[in-house]
């Protein structure tokens, strides 16, 4: 099987993305994860351009990568100094990376107008930079910036840049579609032309997504002889992003018969994709091919019925191949068959026409009309199902509460206090707590009141808190934005699992209360279920 | 110039998206907007499948579309009834749409396993359905579901489905890659094969994005003879979405020399894309090619310098061609050149090395470290610049405030009250207001206190309110989710413009206060600037 080298530049070109800002610690975690995925190269940064990247390479010297080689990126040397006196090249050598990647100009107009040097001088920069670095690198790559645009304007000069790099010791020439404006058939034709003129060269492709064609362009290049593909996880990168390696790896391995990752590693793809988003503090793009949360999600009633019979009817691959999974959504397009399918997941075998199914369907539709969203809040849904079935009890009642945020003197941090009155069984608990903001204060007061009855709440942590304004309501409400209905999603966890609950109200405090109460009830319900299962087993 | 018909199915196939839920009113607004953009066809829904779509078509009978034709979608008739007794086909006729699009099976295994009928019977369904509808439709299209998968398994049967549709009156045959698993070279080869076997047929393409190739596949089909492209705005659709018409239209018109929209309408693309997202209450995908907020955004210092000299160095097209615009980001990669560029936009001509530039750079970096995000809050940034310059004054001081949320009896709606003490000039204003939730109450109290000093605040409205939890802080904070730092963005507007302000704190109330204060100060600052300009003109 032919192997294609995957060259990941999430940590360098990816961070040019508007949204992607990574600390050195973030970069180390991502590098480790990419190594576990099994990419061939990890481009860690541009040590000559900023101290953060320099620190990253220093730290990486203590890491032993298992599959990947670490690459450092830099430009050809500055025109006014020689290669051996160029700080940027010296920083590359200092980086300790075994792979060095040098980018240079190949588009004539960039040489004369941006660098303001002669075409001949640019060839010298390429030659001297690579020759100087050659002894210091296990592998030396040349990134031909703007190659396709340059080739279209002045093919001979673009080729002579490549030829110079090759003669000066480059192991591989990477053709870059820097502005992302090239079409797949142009990529194919130019790849063919380059191979004709430089038959001995090994070629790579570096594509950007400005025409939504970066994946297609990368695959076209592979079909026309590229042995390396550069890109980023989730397609992060400046403007519209770099070529998305998640899609490229899956397409090459599952559709085109190439090998990119070590045997069996493809199923780590979805987890890696989500991990990078999480570390970067970016919400995952749900519709992302292969690895997205929606990639194998079915909503329409007709499709759900067909997919339940045979997943291949509306799924092009088995989601497990890339570590993803099938999801069936609850929504207003959902019919009874979705409800039955979901109920089965929670262990209830129900029949169509069961009055319980109809009651649940009505309750769900009402709540979805109000803005509840159960596809992202499975714990609230599970509680709802069990309540309608009469199988889940309320572990406490919140009789009254008051939350106060005060600033007494201009410029002071607010003081926040919550009081809650709870009934647990026949007992009344009345307590108060301060907190960092109103939701945190309520959370602290609730736990303080409940932990003496339910010590297992001590294991539980709130992990994430999301607020969404339901804009639909803004439009209809004369009071404007701040009176809009908000949906709060709270993610909680203990040592064993994580769950998400939902609340909806025009008042963020009230919406948070609903989600907090569900979260606590779910923890207690789940622990009770476990005890029950345990007890039954012991009989 | 060759024309390609754009067939928009945002309102039908798009709503199969996990995230896209549209009311009838939403659908009417989007249809009007798509007509203004100038697509050839708007597929409004499946009137036989749900009452909401039926209502949409009834309403649409009162609209006069200027460019687009309205299409209604449905399936071939049910196997157990005849065409003239099929409720789904009758609903199509009732819809009043001038274009009817019928989908049917073309993959043999779907016929025998899903429909559970013979291959011959399926051909009858296609034939009878189309023949029955033919007299009722100005144009009649046949959507060949799973065509490419079907062709790969049983080419003869797939072709005979197409041939039957053609013979029964279909004006156009749409080849669907329903599961989105097909590669561009397969699309090309199969398009060629179909044209050889059915040379008289007009063909269309309907692609899905499961391999991140929907745009490439649509373009490949056009290159191989398709005259119609089906897709959705922003690529909405089930799983990974449909082919994104925004990218397809721009690529066809700007890169491939086809005409898709009326002359001059391409520049409406970005606005249409944002409008659909807004009505659907979905956040825009920033990195979306052509129409995304990041599509022509520059962050890296090197790129910014080059782009300021010549935009084409890092932009594949002029953003204005699709109604988008260039943005220069403030970020930790930004150097002085970005600050100078931004300052110029606000009318300050500053020099590199100006102590003001350095002060502003320091202030910005500090605030970005805390989580302030000025790329989405230009009004807060403009205020900051003017404050550092000593050109913006504070129109009021909030000396103290208190916000109280109370529920006295279980199950009651919370009662929210805000008190504020303000100093305006030498006067003290102490007042209180109730509101729908804490932020709304504070907003009401602030306006109540300020409107007697600044009556022009009466024109101002809060339009949107966004809360983002900065997850970075969640990880570092032992208290967990609800104590995380939050960033609040508030969008406000008056009759003339809209502006966005930002606040950051671990307390959502405090973050909202900052954004509200900025928003009010910005309105007053802007109106003062206008008066000043007016006064100068009158001298």
From TrEMBL, chains A, B:
<dbReference type="InterPro" id="IPR000891">
    <property type="entry name" value="PYR_CT"/>
</dbReference>
<dbReference type="Pfam" id="PF08502">
    <property type="entry name" value="LeuA_dimer"/>
</dbReference>
<dbReference type="Pfam" id="PF22617">
    <property type="entry name" value="HCS_D2"/>
</dbReference>
<dbReference type="InterPro" id="IPR054691">
    <property type="entry name" value="LeuA/HCS_post-cat"/>
</dbReference>
<comment type="similarity">
    <text>Belongs to the alpha-IPM synthase/homocitrate synthase family.</text>
</comment>
<keyword id="KW-0808">Transferase</keyword>
<protein>
    <recommendedName>
        <fullName>Citramalate synthase</fullName>
        <ecNumber>2.3.3.21</ecNumber>
    </recommendedName>
</protein>
<dbReference type="InterPro" id="IPR013709">
    <property type="entry name" value="2-isopropylmalate_synth_dimer"/>
</dbReference>
<comment type="pathway">
    <text>Amino-acid biosynthesis; L-isoleucine biosynthesis; 2-oxobutanoate from pyruvate: step 1/3.</text>
</comment>
<dbReference type="GO" id="GO:0009098">
    <property type="term" value="P:L-leucine biosynthetic process"/>
</dbReference>
<feature type="domain" description="Pyruvate carboxyltransferase">
    <location>
        <begin position="4"/>
        <end position="267"/>
    </location>
</feature>
<dbReference type="InterPro" id="IPR013785">
    <property type="entry name" value="Aldolase_TIM"/>
</dbReference>
<dbReference type="InterPro" id="IPR036230">
    <property type="entry name" value="LeuA_allosteric_dom_sf"/>
</dbReference>
<dbReference type="GO" id="GO:0003852">
    <property type="term" value="F:2-isopropylmalate synthase activity"/>
</dbReference>
<dbReference type="InterPro" id="IPR005675">
    <property type="entry name" value="Citramal_synthase"/>
</dbReference>
<dbReference type="InterPro" id="IPR002034">
    <property type="entry name" value="AIPM/Hcit_synth_CS"/>
</dbReference>
<dbReference type="GO" id="GO:0009097">
    <property type="term" value="P:isoleucine biosynthetic process"/>
</dbReference>
<keyword id="KW-0412">Isoleucine biosynthesis</keyword>
<dbReference type="GO" id="GO:0043714">
    <property type="term" value="F:(R)-citramalate synthase activity"/>
</dbReference>
<keyword id="KW-0100">Branched-chain amino acid biosynthesis</keyword>
<dbReference type="Pfam" id="PF00682">
    <property type="entry name" value="HMGL-like"/>
</dbReference>
<keyword id="KW-0028">Amino-acid biosynthesis</keyword>
